[in-house]
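Troubleshooting: if your tokenizer reports a length mismatch, compare your output against this known-good record of 279 residues.
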Amino acid sequence: MAEKSLWERIQRIDRRVIYTIVLISTAIILIRPLGLPVPISESTRAVYDYIESLPAGSYILWDIGIGGPTYAELAPASAAVMNHILIRPLKLVLVTLSADAPPLIDLMIKTLVKIPSDKSYGKDWVFMGYVAGAESGRAALAKDFRSTVPKDYLGTPIDQIPMLAGVTGASNFKLVMDTTGGTDTVEHFIRQWVTPFGAKYASVLTAGIVPAAIAYYPRQLFGFLYGARGGAEYELLIKMPGRNLMMTDAISIVHVWFFIFVAIGNIGYIAIRMQKKKT
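Known-good structure output:
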């Protein structure tokens, strides 16, 4: 029996070897990220520029609608924007209209958000917990904030939270944001905040809903981040590398291996056919 050529041996490599190579290289990148450059999209830069332009003491309301299936994509991206807000002299008010989100938001803050030592809870940022009602809940926050959230996530009455003194509704917030995996949330904020109150609105979106949400960009939705890619762009803008850049590095490496293996496979196939023709 004739000895198999190099290309024939390569064509018969066990696929588990390929999986192992990809797995090991990805693990190395996750441990030691490369920090590969990521082009900054206009929608991401719009969010960064607006937050940078806000005067000291401006209030931001953020509805964080993360769940188990979307946590890995949305939490790191949201944390990147939150890190930017917290290093500026701004006031951040967090709420959620997703019943399963509060413990995940708590986890995100504890593991992904870097709260500066000079920022304190109740003075610079606060989490008001879960608000029921979906669109009606968002409308209520805009019209009568204090009655809608009479206490925070920890049970502290709103009148005992220093930073919320005088906060009554949409007119107090220079920016309203949300984190979401559904276009219905985007439409709720446009109907209940942007249209009646002229609120400036931005969002952190899963990549899958961007094609639907982009219909509102840049007029009603002036800026947005899409998934880990948007989070990686934001980490570059604020010069705070984190989980998003780590994920985009890993995704890039997997794609590099994909193209390498496809190229080798096709070259090998052509080489084997040419060898057979000669014989």
